[in-house]
Specification:
- The protein is α+β, with helices and mostly antiparallel strands and 158 residues long.
- It has one domain: Small protein B (Small Protein B, Chain: A), CATH 2.40.280.
- Helix content is 32%, strand content 33%.
- The protein starts with 9 loop residues before the first strand and ends with a helix.
- GO terms for molecular function: RNA binding.
- InterPro entries: SmpB (IPR023620), SsrA-bd_prot (IPR000037), SsrA-bd_prot_CS (IPR020081).
Length: 158
Amino acid sequence: MAPKGSSRVISKVVAENRKARFNYEIIDTYEAGLVLTGTEVKSLREGKANIAESYATDEDGEMWLINAYLPEYLQANRFNHAPRRRRKLLLSKREINKLQGAVNREGMSLIPLKIYFNERGRAKLELALGKGKKLHDKRESEKERDWNRQKSRLLKEH
């Protein structure tokens, strides 16, 4: 887990879950590694992955990314991977225990925010711990976003 003040260099964002910040109140974020096969990495580098409907869960003391879509790599023919297979997340034992406790006790969710390649060329997942927003909270977020847009237009005119 990177400290709040640190500046991680995100070189290339491959997939982003844009609806996550609208549907969930994000409490904390974590950086997790992904266990991938060679064809999955090549497919990620093409940039056509989708994590909109995916989520993370813990099973037997390990974290797993479920329902993330990484399309097949066309040049791999018979050595290809399954597009929606479960992928293991690489987190420290302390982080896994902390996330398990938050999910089990407080009813929070583990939401993948984005998949990116770091400066060393490793595929990483930004994982968030969040609570689901109620309908009135979503309306508040929408009002605030609209007001900020309108405010920037007004400032641009003058």
